[in-house]
Design goal:
By secondary structure, this protein is an all-alpha fold. 65% of the residues lie in helices and 0% in strands. The radius of gyration is 15 Å and the shape is elongated.
Amino acid sequence: MRKLAGVAALRRRMGHMGLFDTDPLFDREPIRDPVLAEHLQITFDLYQTAENIMRLNLRRNHPQADEAEIDRRLLTWLRKQDGWR
């Protein structure tokens, strides 16, 4: 079983972006089921890949944008995909 390194990175990124500031799921026990842990790792890897692809798209469409602007555009896109208003 791979270690869930992606979980901590995703928590930091999503928390930094203000998506999960008060999410009670972050206060729960760690996952001990190896199959579930592997599935979650795959999910986090897929999320990271999707974010990287979207960042590349944003950089291609907005070559003048700095990293802060790319972060803002990514957050806007994420919120729109999740149904945020």
